[in-house]
Design brief:
The chain has 171 residues and is mainly α. It has one domain. It is built from 6 helices and no strands. The chain starts with a helix and ends with a helix.
Amino acid sequence: MEQITEFFISYTPWVITYGLIIAGLAGAFIPVIPSHLIILLGGVSHYFMLRPDSGLGIVSFVVMGLLLVGSQIFETMSGSMGSKWFGGTKWGTFGAMTGLMVGLFFAPYGFILGPLIGALAFEKLFGKQSLKEATSSGVGSAVGTLTGLLMRLIVAFVMSAYLLVDIYLLK
């Protein structure tokens, strides 16, 4: 019985840490799941379970927190920035953000189609743009949203790699 207890005490922190990192990486492919936060929670739980031997410090959490915040800001703004970059007006930008919010309910296709349709509709209805200009704004919104999702994946892998390198190599 004592051996079983010792086994669980020594391996549980690692199972939880790796489980949260893997869940965060998997969540990076599903925009509704807060993947970066899950990875950060993996580091925090690792730190609190193995405090003196965790290999993590304040710098680790500051770096991962900055990556999390930067990625969230970029991901949130990318659809509207894409619309603006492709020649959209403030209506296209607002439409892209509105379309993304509505698209959340129609995952996974809503993440791409929502900003595209939102930017197109708002440009046409409120911005009084021609169909060509409205379409350009909508395509820009979709490109921006895809760029945001790609950045989300990259940051999730960077955060996971940084956490593991910090645990094992930067003690």
